[in-house]
Structure formats: C-alpha cells, structure tokens
C-alpha cells in the first residue's frame, strides 16, 4: 500500500511539472476561413479573412491581426501577411507587411514598411526583430525614430521596451531644432531625454560644436559631460581637456586636467589644468599651471600666472594674469605680480602688487624694489614701478619698451668679480630692432655706475656720473655704449678709492637666480606638485548578441 502511494505521488508530481513547463500555445481567436495544403504547407493551417472578419491570433498578451496567416500548431509558429497589426496591451502597436512569430521563444520578425508606435515614440524601419521574453527589439538595416522633440536615425539599433532605452550602434544621427548630434555609438533614454555615447561623436549647435568619444548629453537642456579626446568649439575658442562640461542655457563651459584653449581668431593658446568659460561675458578663467602662448616675430611668448583671465570680444581681447607672473621668450624673460595684455594691440603691462599704508611707511627702497616687475634682456636686468612692452600688431613685432618710476638697470660686469654696471632714473624709453632691444633713453635724475676697461681688458676705473638723461646702445642684449646728455657731472674713480658699499646704488636688488632659463622654470615648486583629480571613466557597455539564433 505504501509503495502504491509513493508511485501515485511521484506520477502526480511528474504530470504537474510537465504541465508547468509546457509552452503556452498560440490561440486562433478569429478567421474568415481555414484550409490546408499539405503539399505546399505541410502541417499548417491557412487562415484567411473574409468580408467582415480578419485573422486574429493571440499569444501571452499580444494580438496579431492580418489578412492571411499560415499557422503551424505543432511548432507553435505562424507567419502572417497583409496589413499586419501587432499590439501588446495599450503600450505598443506595430504594423508591417509580413510577420513571423514563434510562440515557444516569443520572438518575432517583422518586415515591409514596419512602423512601431509607443506612447512616447514612433519607429520606422524595413525589418524589425522582437524578443518578448527579454523585452527587446532590434534592427540591422536603418531606422528612423521620432519622439516629442527629436528625430533619430541609425543603421543598427536595439531598444529595451521596459526601460525606454535605445542602443544605437552605427551611424547615429539625432536632429533637434537647436542642434544635430552624430555618433558611431550611443545609448538614448527617451523618458529623461539623455544620451550616453561610446564612440566618435559630434554635436553641432547654433553657436557651438562638441566632439568627444565618451560622454553624456542632456538633449532637452543642451548640457553634458564629455571625456576622451573631448573638445568644444565655442565661437572660435576651441577647448580641450580630459573632462569637459557644457551648458548652453548658461553659456558656460568648464574643463579639467590637461586643458587647452585655442583662440583661432587671435592666434593664441592657453594651457592649464582647470578652466571656466562664460560665453555671454566673453570671459575665461584658467588656473593650475596656467600658461598662455602667443606668436610674436615667429617666436613664442609664454606667460604663466597662478590665474589667467581672458575677457573681451574678438577684436578687443584682454589677458590678465594674477600672482607670480613669469614670462619667457627666446630673448626676453620677466617676472611680476600681475600682467595686463591687450591682444589686439600686442601691448603688455607688467604690474607690481601695490604697497599698503604700513608698507609705505616701513619699507626701505630695497624692499620696495623687490616688489617691482623685472625684465631680463640677456644678462641685463631692468626693473621699475611699471613696465610696458609695446608691439607693432600688424607685423606682430615688438616695437618699444617703456619703464615708468624707479628705473633700475643692472648688468653684472663680465670681468670684475662682484662688479655691477648700474643705471638709475625716472623713465626709460627703448626701441626694438629686428626683435632685439637696441636703443635706450633714460631720463630724470639719471645716475650711472660703470666699469671702464682698456683695450687689454685692464680696469681703468669706475665711472660714477649724474646727469639729466642718457642714451644707451645695446648689442646682443648687453650694454655696448653710453652717451651722457646735458652737462653730466661725473668722475672716474680708481678701483681702490671706492668703498664696496659705494659701488651699488641705494635700492640695489639683483635677482638673476629668479630668471626663467627655460619654459619649465615658469612653474613654481607648488605648480609642479599639483596632483590632478581622477576622472571617472565611462565604461563601454557589453556587446549584446541578439542576432545569433534569433530566427526560427
């Protein structure tokens, strides 16, 4: 009796599992007529419409209506023809010329003027594949998708019916009234109007262009993050960086790590590791190893500062640099607290940090001169309250030099140990010939200390002269000749008759150790210790193979 009970129980369980695993059979709900043709369609029923009734087939919530269907009961499969309508609840409707459907796998293939409509979009293609179990569809031969704000086309694509998500994998094109987006591969989320792209992509807006090979883009608000070879062309300013951000409505862009801003109109380039660009204000701020590069006389002028600010329209662009300004050109080096550079005129002003009330009271002349901007021409050091480098903009050539207030020229004597040729005055005017500083005029209480030598390089004496002005000629960035004007008062003293303390003017400051010898010297120790923030990567999604073993 016990054995019989166990046998019945096992048999019951086997029958229960068999029915549980059994596939749901496609139902024939309606047909105008039915016939068979075993020769042409072995094992199939041919379902036809009549004047009042079309063929209705139903499977797991999907209704397929057509003019004709070839239904294979044992295979749980059919092919429908003639104005086929496929509906799934009230969320999805598809029309096509022909459709094949496998009830066991719940996969369908539709072709011939396929139109798939959902509540938020319409898709048109020639051939479409559906997998109802995985809730995905895909196409391989071009499709057009229209939603509330965009028209999207691509050569290949997948859509995820439960996620409002599309994956376009070839020749993607999105047209919006405000821009066009082209990509080789991107994911599109229709419910939030957001795109993630994973291949070469371009966005063409009304006044901007974006290129990136990884990134995200808010299609509705025209803003996004761009990574991997990203660049933004913003009215002639091309912005590069490891990570870029852009927001059209705020006319704002930013860049992080290894950034470059190329001004194609004014032919300038700025490097750094962080930048913000405000288009409506015609301004850009660059920090973290910030350095600008300008072309002057077929030579590069490099300007570094802790912070560089570019403002003004194309024809009136101004560069300002703040804190620890350093400049480098093949024949000019310089330092100052700040800089003002009019790009359209080529005129540069080196500016010192103003002295406060207490500093004015307690600072010695040497302390004050330590604040003054400096230019080096070869071994000649020139300082003053304000320094101006003026250019001839049409030919992009340096034209003249002007130093105003507390002019101090120092040049270490090439022979005498610890000897310095010096000139002090109120104003300096100089001009450039073929890119080199040539003729100099110093006016206003001009004082000179100059070491004189014989033809045999024997020291004759030390010239100390006071005059109203002098003219000086430079050769190879060194003092070559000095001419005193209007009754100079001076004397040449033998070396042994001048005390060491009288060989330097009051306020003497020699800062040759701070002279940038190369582009690398433009950066401070703190600049070189900057640690760049990590940029989050956008990982490539896994390749989903829906095509293999899809067809019945």
Please give a structural write-up.
The chain is mainly beta and 552 residues long. Helix content is 7%, strand content 58%. It has a 42-stranded antiparallel sheet that branches. The radius of gyration is 41 Å and the shape is rod-shaped.
Characteristic terms for this protein:
single chain; 552 residues; mainly beta; lipopolysaccharide transport protein A fold; 42-stranded antiparallel β-sheet; 4 helices; 58% strand; disordered N terminus
CATH class of the domain at 368-509: Mainly Beta
Q: Give me the CATH architecture of the domain at 368-509, please.
A: Sandwich
- Helical region count? 4
Main sheet: strands, sense, barrel: 42 strands, antiparallel
The helix-and-strand class reads: mainly beta
Q: How would you sum up the global shape?
A: rod-shaped
Poorly predicted parts:
1-21
Short description:
7% of the residues lie in helices and 58% in strands. With 552 residues, the protein is mainly beta.
Note the topology.
Layout (H helix, E strand, L loop, with lengths): L1 H20 L5 E4 L2 E3 L9 E4 L6 E5 L2 E5 L1 E5 L4 E12 L3 E11 L4 E12 L2 E11 L4 E4 L3 E5 L3 E4 L1 E5 L4 E6 L1 E5 L2 E5 L2 E4 L4 E4 L3 E5 L2 E5 L1 E5 L4 E12 L2 E11 L4 E12 L4 E11 L4 E5 L3 E6 L2 E6 L2 E5 L6 E12 L2 E11 L4 E5 L5 H6 L2 H7 L2 E4 L2 E4 L2 E7 L4 E16 L7 E14 L2 E18 L5 E17 L2 E8 L3 E5 L31 H4 L24
Antiparallel strand pairs: 1-4, 2-3, 3-6, 4-5, 5-7, 6-7, 7-8, 8-9, 9-10, 10-11, 10-12, 11-14, 12-13, 13-16, 14-15, 15-18, 16-17, 17-20, 18-19, 19-22, 20-21, 21-23, 22-23, 23-24, 24-25, 25-26, 26-27, 26-28, 27-30, 28-29, 29-31, 30-31, 31-32, 32-33, 32-34, 33-36, 34-35, 35-37, 36-37, 37-38, ...
């Amino acid at each position: 009796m016990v054995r019989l009970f166990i046998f019945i129980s096992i048999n019951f369980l086997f029958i229960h599992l068999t029915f549980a695993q059994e596939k749901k059979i496609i139902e024939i709900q309606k047909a105008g007529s039915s016939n068979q043709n075993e020769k042409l369609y072995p094992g199939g029923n041919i379902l036809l419409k009549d004047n009042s009734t079309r063929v209705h087939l139903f499977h797991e919530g999907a209704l397929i209506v057509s003019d004709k269907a070839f239904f294979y009961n044992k295979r749980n499969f059919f092919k429908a023809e003639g104005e086929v309508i496929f509906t799934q609840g009230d969320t999805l409707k598809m029309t096509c010329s022909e459709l094949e459907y496998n009830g066991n796998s719940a996969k369908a293939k539709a072709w011939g003027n396929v139109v798939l409509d959902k509540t938020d979009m319409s898709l048109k293609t020639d051939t479409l594949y559906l997998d109802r179990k995985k809730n995905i569809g895909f196409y391989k031969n071009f499709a057009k998708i229209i939603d509330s704000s965009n028209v999207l086309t691509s050569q290949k694509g997948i859509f995820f019916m439960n996620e409002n998500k599309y994956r376009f994998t070839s020749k993607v094109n999105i047209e919006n009234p405000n821009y066009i987006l082209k990509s080789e591969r991107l994911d599109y989320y229709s419910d939030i109007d957001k795109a993630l792209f994973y291949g070469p992509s371009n966005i063409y807006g009304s006044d901007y262009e974006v290129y990136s090979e990884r990134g995200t883009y808010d299609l509705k608000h025209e803003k996004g993050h761009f990574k991997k070879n990203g660049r933004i062309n913003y009215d002639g300013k091309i912005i590069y960086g490891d990570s870029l951000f852009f927001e059209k409505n705020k006319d704002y862009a930013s860049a992080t790590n290894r950034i470059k801003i190329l001004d194609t109109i004014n032919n300038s380039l700025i490097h750094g590791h962080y930048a913000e660009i405000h288009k409506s204000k015609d301004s850009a701020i660059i920090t973290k190893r910030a350095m600008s590069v300008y072309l002057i006389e077929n030579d590069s002028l490099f300007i570094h500062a802790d912070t560089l600010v570019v403002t003004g329209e194309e024809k009136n662009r101004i560069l300002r640099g703040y804190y620890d300004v350093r400049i480098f050109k093949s024949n000019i080096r310089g330092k100052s607290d700040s800089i003002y550079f009019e790009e359209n005129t080529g005129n540069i002003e080196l500016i010192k940090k103003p002295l406060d009330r207490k500093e004015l009271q307690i600072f010695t002349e040497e302390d004050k001169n330590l604040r003054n901007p400096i230019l080096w021409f070869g071994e000649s050091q020139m300082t003053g309250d304000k320094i101006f480098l003026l250019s001839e903009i049409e030919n992009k050539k340096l034209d003249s030099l002007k130093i105003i207030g507390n002019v101090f020229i120092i040049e270490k004597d090439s022979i005498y140990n610890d000897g310095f040729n010096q000139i002090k005055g109120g104003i300096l005017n100089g001009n450039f010939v073929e890119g080199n500083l040539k003729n100099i005029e110093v006016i206003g209480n001009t004082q000179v200390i100059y070491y004189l030598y014989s033809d045999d390089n024997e020291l004759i004496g030390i010239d100390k002269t006071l005059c109203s002005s002098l003219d000086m000629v430079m050769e190879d960035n060194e003092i070559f000749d000095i001419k005193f004007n209007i009754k100079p008062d001076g004397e040449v003293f033998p070396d042994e008759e001048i005390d060491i303390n009288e060989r330097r003017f009051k306020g003497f400051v020699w800062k040759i150790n701070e002279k940038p010898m190369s582009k690398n010297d433009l950066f401070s120790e703190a600049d070189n210790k900057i640690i760049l923030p990590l940029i989050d990567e956008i990982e490539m999604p896994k390749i989903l193979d829906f095509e293999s073993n899809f067809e019945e």
